[in-house]
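User: Please run a holo structure prediction.
Assistant: Happy to. Please share the sequence and the ligand.
User: Here you go; the ligand is D-malate.
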Amino acid sequence: MNISYRSEGSGEPIVFLHAFPLNRSMWEGQVAEFSATHRVMTFDWPGFGESPLDEGEPGMDRFADCLVGLLDHLGLDRVHLCGLSMGGYAALAFYRRWPERIASLILCDTRATADTEEARKGRYETAALARREGAAPLVESMTPRLLGATSLAERPDLVGRVKEMILSSHPEGIARALIGMAERPDSTDLLAGIEIPTLIVAGNEDKLTPPEEMRTMADAIPGATFLIIDRAGHLPNLEQPSLFNQALREFLPSR
Ligand code: MLT
């Protein structure tokens, strides 16, 4: 598998997994912050950012394969893992197969449950739309759902950045990720057995994975810390980077 990645800094390794339909540049603020104290890795899922399309069966297991391939390539046994939304689905798929390779888990604006039938149908329709018309229709449908009301009203720069990220995604990469998300299994069964330190982060304006649902997930994980970030939607690391970084800083072990 051919994956475009970035590794900066040194210290305990932390890997950030990006959301749909964005790319690793969504983590720039975290790379800048944490590379001073940690080894920080970000990468693009196949068909997003600078990673080429992949031929394998689409799915979160395929994404977990990408991650294990990267860790093996870099010679890393165990990492702190932070996944946002689709990145969180992939983190849970990875945890199911390689729990011993995760030192701590940060799940942001994501869910452990599988899609409802209705959501699944919508994903297949959007996948067909992306194949027919490219990424452009997703810019209009996704941007207002990804960003919270505060960012939409006050952060035109961020609105533009999110739109650019969506537009740069490969339509087939978008379609494959949608199919992979639609077919992902329910991971709720994993939650009670998670024994590593876990932080759950939710934006209080998140419409895609509402904070109440995130709280339910946090309650199912023994000893998990749950944190709500104010004035943020589905992308709190971009919408409120200082608060987000501070939360991670307090959670991660210092060197
Ligand atoms: C994401 O941000 O990765 C997506 O909104 C996830 C999803 O559509 O379920």
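Residues 124 and 174 are 11 Å apart (CA to CA).
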